[in-house]
Amino acid sequence: MKDLCSSCNKFPVINRKHMLCQICNHKRLHPNEPKKIYKPIRKILRKNKAFNRDQESIKKQKQSQKAIRKITDKQKLIRLQDKKIFLEIWSEREHICVCCNQELLFPNTWYFSHVVSKGALPQARHDKENIVLKCDKCHFEWEHGDRNKLFNKEILFELAFYIKNKYSCQK
Predict the structure, then answer these.
(1) What is the pLDDT of residue 161?
(2) Considering Cα of 15, then 21, then 22, then 25, what sign does the dihedral take?
């Protein structure tokens, strides 16, 4: 098998001095130009059977890793209940993000954010008090980022405290 490019480690080397493929060598020589796809590279790849076999085995591994899950009837029912609650909330409240006051134009499911997560308190999943409207950025920051960076975070923390107490008293 031919040597692979030291930069991208994908294509066979054409520049032995720098150990680069045609694309990476072009980037080295012309750093300000956009990336180009070369026809000779395709020909080289077709001729290089070992390289093609490696690519096929990588594709097969990726396909085997992607397990297709079937949605159960219980999951379908929960998602229908979610949509029903979301539409009720959308009709009752202003279409504005709680954190940054951005206007929300349509009832996207991503706009409905649980103050106390569904995993932490499953019984509060369909509680309207536990769901607030947030824009994409604020919702992502709440779920995956630093909650202290959000505007109006005090209101959300107080609401979370209230909801946790509400459900701890019911037990």
Answers:
(1) 86
(2) negative
